[in-house]
């Protein structure tokens, strides 16, 4: 995870475990993989007047952090069998050798390509931190 300090001063404590980003010893935990979409997502962590941490909160008084989650990356995987829907494409048909005078049987080996999401690579996540000198977290 890339960490950028936006200004001087004390920052919120955080810990990354797998795809879970934990702030202030469990006060707020984000499962980053659940926020990932087909486009980059930015979530702002703020604090309210009562010391609560919020994700994209409307009643915020303090900026705490900003988390930038990259877009989902996909890979094409060749899968045995016929495609189940229109989003899967037929990839390879390997024909078994058959004599020309034998009855025509469907001895074709079929595969198709499926688009699979790769797991979130947390090395591509960016965490920007603001000073929390004036903010007391509950």
Describe the structure concisely.
It is built from one helix and eleven strands.
3D architecture notes:
With 138 residues, this protein is mainly β. Helices cover 3% and strands 43% of the residues. It has one helix at 32-35; strands at 2-5, 14-17, 20-23, 28-31, 41-47, 53-55, 62-69, 74-80, 89-94, 109-117, 126-129. The longest helix has 4 residues, at 32-35. Mean pLDDT is 86; it is low at 92-99.
Roughly how much helix do the residues carry, as a percent range?
Answer: under 10%
- Biggest sheet strand order reads 1-11-7-5-6
Unreliable spans = 92-99
Q: Tally the helices: what do you get?
A: 1
Strand proportion: 35-45%
Give the ordered list of helices and strands.
EEEEHEEEEEEE
**Number of strand elements:** 11
Kindly report how far apart the N and C termini lie: 26 Å
Structural class: mainly beta
Overall geometric form? elongated
Largest sheet: 5 strands, mixed
**Quaternary assembly:** single chain
- Report the C-alpha radius of gyration, rounded: 25 Å
Average of the residue pLDDT scores:
86
